[in-house]
Amino acid sequence: MRPALALLQRILGFVIVFFGVTFVIYFAVFSLPGDPIRALAGDRAIPQGVIDALHAQYRLDQPLWQQYSAYIGGLFHGDFGIDFRGRPVGEQMLARWPVTIALALTAWGIEVVLGVAIGVISALRKGTVIDKSLLALTVLASCIPVFVLGAVAQLVFGVSLGWLPVAGVSDGWPISYILPAAVIAVFGLAAVSRLVRSSVIESLGSDYVRTARAKGLGEPRVVGVHVMRNSLIPASTFLATDLGYLLGGTVIIEGIFNLPGVGNLLFSAIRSHEGATVVGVSTALILIFLITTIVVDALHAVLDPRSRLG
Amino acid sequence: MTDDTGVLLAVRSLRVAFDLEGDSHVGVADVSFEVGAGEILAIVGESGSGKSVASMAVLGLLPENASVEGAIEFEGRDILGLSAGELRGIRGSGIAMIFQDPVAALNPVFTVGFQIVEAVRAQNGGLPKAQARRRAVELLELVGIPDAERRLDSYPHQLSGGQCQRVMIAMALAGEPRLLIADEPTTALDVTVQAEILDVLRSLRDRVGLSILMITHDMGVVADIADRVVVMKEGNVVERGNVAEIFTRPQAEYTHRLLSAVPRFGGRDDATHAESTEATLSVRSLVVEYGGRLRGLVRAVDDVSLSVAPGEILGVVGESGSGKTTIGRAVIGLAPVTAGTIEVCGVDLATRDRVARQRMRRRVGVVFQNPATSLNPRFSVAETVSEPLRMIARLRGSELSDRTDALLASVGLDGRWRERYSHELSGGQRQRVAIARAVALDPDLLIADEPTSALDVSVQARVLDVFRELQERLGFACVFISHDLAVVDSLCDSVAVMHRGRVVEQGSRARVLFDPAEEYTRRLIASAPVPDPAEQRLRREARRAV
Question: What is the ipTM of this complex?
Answer without folding.
Answer: 0.77
